[in-house]
Structure formats: C-alpha cells, structure tokens
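ARCHIVE CARD
Drawer: 12
Card no.: 0347
Subject: one protein chain, sequence and derived structure
Cross-reference: see card 0346
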Amino acid sequence: MKLVPISAGERTGICTRLTVPVLAFGGILMAVMQTVVVPLLPDLPRLTGSSPGAVSWLVTATLLAGAVLTPVLGRAGDMYGKRRVLLAALGLMTAGSALCALTSDIRVLIAARALQGAAAAVVPLSISILRDELPPERTGSAVALMSSTVGIGAALGLPLAALIVQYADWHAMFWATSALGAIGLALAWWTVAESPVRSPGRFDTWGALGLAAGLVCLLLAVSQGGQWGWRSAPVIGLFAGAVVILSVWWRQQLRAEQPLVDLRLAAGRRVLLPHVAALLAGFAFYANSLVTAQLVQAPVASGYGLGLSIVATGLCLLPNGVIMLVLSPVSARVSTRHGARVTLAIGGAVMALGYVVRIVDSRHLWVIILGAAVVSTGTTFAYSALPTLILRAVPPTQTASASGVNVLMRTIGQSVCSAAVAAVLVQHTTAVDGLRVPTLPGYQLAFAMAGIIALVACATALAIPSEKAPDGPERTAGRPGPLAADGPGREKLTP
C-alpha cells in the first residue's frame, strides 16, 4: 500500500459540478429548519394544549442541540469521514422534521426539534469538504457561498413558513420541510464524495461530554434568563455550573493526547481572533432580523409601527437573503485580492453603517428595508471571510472541527444578542391599546448596541495577523501554499 496525492481532475462529471450547489442547498435547509417554527409560536400553546413556556423549548431545544453537536460532529468528521457525518446530520434533521409532522404532543415535538439541531453541523462539514475537494481557484467563492447560506435560509424560511401556516394545516409545514430534507439527503449521497483527509485516532468522549454539559448550562441560562429572571437561583446556578464545567473541560483538553478541540492551536491569534469576531458578527447579524421583525409588526397606534402581518414581515426580510446570495462571490473576490481579514473588517463597518440608517429612520418601510439590506451586505462580507480565515490558519486534518467551533461562536453570539435585545426592549415599553409594546427609543437603543458590536468586530478583524505567513508565502485563495489544495495531509490510500 502506498500514498499517492490526489489530483484536482480525479473527480469529473455532473457530480463534481453539483457538489457546491448541493452542499449550499443543505446549508439553506439547515437555516430554514431553524426558522420555520417562528410563525407558529403564538398559536402552538392552543394547537398543542401546552403552556407558552413549554412551547418556547421548540426553539431552545434546537439551539442547545446545535451548539453541542456542531463541534462534536465537526471533530467526528475529521476523524471518521466528513461525508459520512454530513449525511448523518442531514438524516437526523429530516427525521426530526418528519416526527414533527406526525405529532401534536409537545414533548415529542421538543425531542424532534432537538434532532433537527444536528443540522447545525452541516455548514462547517461542508466548508471542510469544499476545501478538500475543490481546486484553490474555486475554494474561495464556494466557501463564501456556503457560509452565507445561514442568512439566505433564515430570510427564506420565515415567509415560506408564514405562507404555509396561513393557508394550510401547520403540520403541512413540517411535511414540506421533510420532503426538502429527503431531497437534500439524496442529492448529498449522490454527488458528494468522501474526503480522503482524515485525522485518525480515538474520539475524545470525555471532552465531548464536558463541552456538551458546559454549553447546555451556559446557553440555557442565556436563553431562559429573561423568562426565569437573571437573578433567580436557577440562572445563577447554571452560569456557575458553566464556569466550573468549562474550566475543568479546558484543563482536560490541554492534557488530552487527542483533544476534541485543540486549544493550543485555538489560542493563537490567527484562530482565536476569528473566533472572537464570529461571536461579535453573530450578535450584530441576529439583531437585524430579530428587531426588524418586531418593529414592522408593532401596532400603528404606537406611532412608529406598521402593523404588518407575519407574511408581509417575511417578505420584508426576503431581500436580505437575495443580497447574501448575490454578494457572496463578490466578497470572495475581495478576500482573494485584499485578504480575508480586510473583507471581515469591511463587513463589520458596513453592518455598523446599516444600523446608523436604522437609528436615523425606523418609521418608513422603504428605509427599514434599506437599512436591513445594508446590514445584510455587511453580514455577507463578514460571514464569507470567517471560514476563509479559519481554513488558512489550521491544518487540513482539523478543518471541520475548527470550522465547527467558529460556527458555535456565531451561535453563542446570536443567543447573547437575543437575550440582550429582549432585556433592552423590556426596559423600554409603553401602553398601546391596553398592551405593553416596546418604544421606538428602545428599538433604536438595540440598533445602537448592535452597531457598536459590529464596530468591535471590525477592530478585531484588523487585529488579526496578516495572511502572509511568517515562515512561508502568502496564503491567498488560488495560490498554493502550506495549507492549500496540494498541501500536507491531502492524501489518500490506494492499494
């Protein structure tokens, strides 16, 4: 048996040409699955005979499962095969959707939504596959598109779900997503080749359990703090538990021979700062759709609200997905010419500019759509640059796990944003027709907070070391370097 390098021309034909769109379709499906339940939340207590608190777990369960499974499945992909783990994640997502379509029991629905959370690993696994399979000149644009699918799917999911819920039984929405999931799974099985790049060894089970426990404590406290009370014993206990568990986990990872997360590699500025930027960008991105959806649905009597339906609200957010789809190749070209850290900095600055527009005028629909579109433009540049920075900073055998951690940081940023925005809006309310609704200054404060976070993301990007390696040539997309397509580790076994 001998090792021979893989050539870019070994995989040809229709399957090769379809690899990028099929993986992008899977990423969009993942984001759609996370979003479709939102229009149902007000009616689900009545439809399922459960309390609003129980219904909120339909969102929380997916968030927690996704946060826990993303780095775990990323590491499993590096070790056992990225295609294999990708198919498993898509299969769990589809099974969860089918289970939701078959039941009205809130307990089963929560469990099914947790299964759907496995789909969060689709994006980092796909990014890693693209790095392994595509020639260098195609990798940048493909990775940019893959990273942008999160925003594209979120923008598509809300109006799609709202239309189905308005004109059909709510179970039909999950039947539709089940069918789409089955199509995505079949296409991925047919077109995506197994990556030959592996990191053999023993899976760090204790590391996975420790990370899972710590993240559950942290994200549960963040997501439920507003409902349970930030000073309540359960929330304080969860935060304390997260600190203790993650501290022990950190020590265990440093001592492990084959850790789940290579913390020594992650502590370097080339990896650490993109992770920090991912958390900040996730915060800034999520405020855009979260606050916009609430603002345009506010009653007209509030003096600023437009009283739009959930369907109209979804249509207002739809241009954001189109923008991310169209601009992802543009952002890839900027990264190729000027470097991914410059693209990330541009993204943070443009997001901040969009929030300035939102603060100046949040009363007219066209200005609201314009401001949201500017934020989405910045998000496209930021999200497309983040995986490129990670791929150029880690060896090929760790791309899925490192990308999974980066996606996890974006998820944590979104969770913190949701809690922070809720806390701001609760403190700024007024009575309208007997109901308490947020005030316009409350929304503007939320926009200002997101804009400041975006500027911090911009500054973080500029602090990332230049992409010119200290011991080698510049690592640009399309120029083979130590971590490019023909680099070490890109090998396969042949008899």
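Annotation on reverse: The chain has 18 helices and four strands. Residues 1-11, 469-495 have pLDDT under 50 and may be disordered.
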